[in-house]
Amino acid sequence: MKNVSLALSLILAGLMTTVVSCDSSKPIAPAAKTSVAETAPMPDAALMSAVSSPGKADNDEGVNQYKQGHMDAAITGFQKAVKADPKLAEAQYNLGLSLDKTGKHDEATAAFKQAIALAPANPAIKDSPILKKHLGV
């Protein structure tokens, strides 16, 4: 009986949330399109790059290595991405993250400065607590 009460409580809570959040007077609109790089990441999450970037494959490989904790391989991937596309702000930002995690703070600061110079309006970059810490903002 206790399990049934708990289950019913959870179902009712879910229904109440759905009912409260519904507004039948408004038409259903499609979700806004945003690029991956424009969405705010977790504080130390590496960023994916734009599809059109020549450095995309190397940046993506760096992101995969970063997620697995392989910082040396991640740094190599991000450096290759920057070489392939010097204007790739996400790769510069990711390079800064990886360098920070390996204790190379001066190099991380330089990469973060380059990232913010390339994409000053990108919230995923400009609002990063780690970047702000390195740049003193």
Overview of this structure, please?
With 137 residues, this protein is mainly α. The protein has a single domain, classed as Serine Threonine Protein Phosphatase 5, Tetratricopeptide repeat, CATH 1.25.40. Helix content is 61%, strand content 0%. The chain is built from seven helices and no strands. Helix 2 packs parallel to helix 4. The longest helix is centred in the N-terminal third of the chain and has 20 residues. The radius of gyration is 21 Å and the shape is globular. The protein starts with a helix and ends with a helix.
On the 0 to 100 scale, the average pLDDT is 80
Strand portion: under 5%
Find the CATH superfamily: Tetratricopeptide repeat domain
CATH architecture: Alpha Horseshoe
Biggest beta-sheet profile: none
Model regions low in confidence, pLDDT < 50 over at least 5 residues: 16-41
Tally of domains: 1
Calculate Rg over CA atoms.
Answer: 21 Å
What is the strand tally?
0
Determine the CATH topology: Serine Threonine Protein Phosphatase 5, Tetratricopeptide repeat
Question: What is the count of DSSP helices, taking H or I runs of 4+ residues?
Answer: 7
Q: What is the CATH class designation?
A: Mainly Alpha
Backbone shape: globular
N-to-C CA distance: 56 Å
Structural class: mainly alpha
